[in-house]
C-alpha cells in the first residue's frame, strides 16, 4: 500500500482502461452487425431449399403494428410473411393451388405454429391470393 502512494502508480487504472477499451470495441462490432446479425438481406431462398407445400393462413388485424421476430413492425399492407426456418429477408413465391394466383413475399417473422401450415401471410398477401374469406388455403412455396 505504501509503494502505491509513494510511486503514484495505481495497478487498478490500467485494468479499467483495458476493460473500457475492450467494451468499446465490442460495441462497435455489434453496431456494424445490424439487426440481422450481419447476415445481410437475402433476395433468394437458401441453396438446397426447393420449396414446400401446405396450408397458408394470414395474420389477424390485431397483430398490425406489433414487433416481429426480425425486429420489424408488422405491417398488414406489406408483402411479408412468417416461416418457421427460412432466413429473414428471403423472398418466396406463394402460389395458391386451387386458383393459381401468386404473390411474392419477404420473410420477416417466425411461425406459423399450427400443424399443416407452412406460412403465415400479411393481409395484403392474403388478398392477392384471394383467401381473405376462407382464411386458410392450400399453397406451394417456391424459391424466388
From TrEMBL:
It is an enzyme of class 4 (lyase). The keyword Lipoprotein applies. InterPro entries: RlpA, RlpA-like_DPBB, RlpA-like_sf, RplA. Residues 53-140 form the RlpA-like protein double-psi beta-barrel domain. Its main location: membrane. It is a lipid-anchor. Its EC number is 4.2.2.-. It is found in: Cell membrane. It comes from the Bacteria. Keywords: Cell membrane, Cell wall biogenesis/degradation, Lipoprotein, Lyase, Membrane, Palmitate. SUPFAM superfamilies: Barwin-like endoglucanases. Lytic transglycosylase with a strong preference for naked glycan strands that lack stem peptides. Belongs to the RlpA family. This is Endolytic peptidoglycan transglycosylase RlpA. The gene is rlpA.
Amino acid at each position: 500500500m505504501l509503494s502505491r502512494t509513494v510511486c503514484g502508480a495505481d495497478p487498478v487504472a490500467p485494468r479499467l482502461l483495458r476493460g473500457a477499451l475492450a467494451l468499446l470495441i465490442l460495441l462497435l462490432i455489434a453496431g456494424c452487425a445490424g439487426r440481422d446479425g450481419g447476415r445481410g438481406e437475402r433476395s433468394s431462398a437458401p441453396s438446397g431449399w426447393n420449396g414446400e407445400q401446405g396450408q397458408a393462413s394470414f395474420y389477424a388485424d390485431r397483430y398490425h403494428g406489433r414487433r416481429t421476430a426480425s425486429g420489424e413492425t408488422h405491417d398488414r399492407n406489406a408483402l411479408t410473411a412468417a416461416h418457421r426456418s427460412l432466413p429473414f429477408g428471403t423472398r418466396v413465391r406463394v402460389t395458391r393451388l386451387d386458383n393459381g394466383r401468386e404473390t411474392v413475399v419477404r420473410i420477416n417473422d417466425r411461425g406459423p405454429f399450427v400443424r399443416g401450415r407452412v406460412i403465415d401471410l400479411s393481409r395484403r398477401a392474403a388478398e392477392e391470393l384471394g383467401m381473405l374469406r376462407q382464411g386458410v388455403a392450400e399453397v406451394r412455396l417456391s424459391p424466388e
